[in-house]
Predict the 3D structure of the following.
Amino acid sequence: MSDLDRGPVRRLRILSWNICELRGDLSALVEAVRDLDPDVFLVQEAPRLVLPQTRLDWFARRIDRRILVGGRFGRGLAILGTDEVARQVIRRGMHKVRQVITDGKSTYPRGVAAVRLSVGDGQELLVSCIHFALQEDNRLTHARHVVELIEGAGAPVVIGGDLNEVATGPARSLLAEVSRDPAEPAQWTFPASGPTRRIDALYATPGVRVLDARRVTETEHVPADRFSAASDHLPTLLDIEVPAF
């Protein structure tokens, strides 16, 4: 029996999405997130250069979520959550992961955003957001950093984002040594208008009870054609079961 199996439980929905710095169809993006109603929302390519805090604040208000991590110095990452989840935050943080600069595409800042939640029954859950680089060496550096984070967490971990690599790539293979990607392999996420690769994923460590894991292509109020205009990536969703809080 795992640490998350005892006593009353509740479903916790975690959504991860590269939102392309809000450059897509904003109404479709907002409506889709409202439909999906995540408890925790892991954001990659959050607004970064032009009024990043103001624009992220605007987006959080539109989807009725609080900013748990991210904003002006967010390195393109953010974690948003419901008021209920915000009350469970024990610690939160953002730190950079050093990258080797080889060209213009390698200058995008990389890092790790994370929140540690109290999930009831005296237990904790670490939820983290990442966005791997386009260069393989930099992805490997980032992945090693994330593996150390998972191994030292002292609690079950859910971690995910835009990994810029398919599941068999070397960086994701490192992640697979300490966690698992529970979604079906054919759940392609990029490009959103006609996906051919699954480079976005959510991973969970063995202490996490997974109820559902999938990409999302449409919602109740956002059909597939509008949904794919919200961003150039499709989001990934993970429903897990945690001790009730």
Q: What stands out?
A: DSSP finds six helices and eleven strands in the chain. The two ends are 20 Å apart (CA to CA). The chain has a mean pLDDT of 94. The chain has one domain: 9-243.
